[in-house]
Amino acid sequence: MNIYLKFIYSIIITIILAYIIKKRGYLDNSGILVSSLMSFIILIGANIYWLILMVLFLVFGSIVSKIGYAKKHSMGMGESRRTIKNVLANGLIAVLVVLLNMFGVIEYIVALVGYIGAIAAATSDTFSSEIGILSNETPRLITTFKKVKNGEDGGITIKGTIAGLMGSLLIGVMAGIMFNNINLIWIATISGMVGNIVDSLMGALFERKGIINNEIVNFTCTIAGCICAVLLYGLI
């Protein structure tokens, strides 16, 4: 596609997406602004399929966040709209991968699997958090397996872990279909869960002690997913 046409096409798609996100209430205004910039970069540096994968994370995340919302709200853990912090924490690594490929620093396939790994990790973590908190099972700290309060940083449940696995698998299946590569299914599933586990470890070791915040934990989660996916691809 001609670069000028691609620029106009990217602007139009970005505006349409921003409008839909605004109407659906997925993000607040600052989140919409930053996500729009990210969308534009993805479209310019890659293509619509890459953006669709990112949008799927946003949609799936919004859907699971609404499951049992009344209970979450009563626990003080309901989140109706995501903010600029959520957008950067979960999407920055994926966008950086696109930029590295766009400027010739890394190869296309490396960027693709890293991108998918980062999104799979963010999705897995979101599913675990949003579904796990509804579990009647008492959470256990991932580092010591001691019982902790529901929603406490670093706490894991069987229900949440299974939900996380389903989240990363979902991204893997969608990626495998869109990019016609069956290997992306298991790469995304594994790397997503690795990122999820890293998230829980960071929560247990640092966040619950007030050393870092949730956004840094989520950012680390996507880094782990990205790196793991690239390493797994290297095994093929």
TrEMBL record:
The keyword Transmembrane helix applies. The chain crosses the membrane at residues 7-26, 32-65, 86-106, 156-178, 184-204, 216-235. Keywords: Membrane, Transmembrane, Transmembrane helix. The keyword Membrane applies. GO terms for cellular component: membrane. It is a multi-pass membrane protein. The lineage of its organism: Archaea, Methanobacteriati, Methanobacteriota, Methanomada group, Methanococci. It is found in: Membrane. Pfam families: DUF92 (PF01940). It comes from the Archaea. Belongs to the TMEM19 family. This is TIGR00297 family protein. It comes from Methanococcus aeolicus (strain ATCC BAA-1280 / DSM 17508 / OCM 812 / Nankai-3).
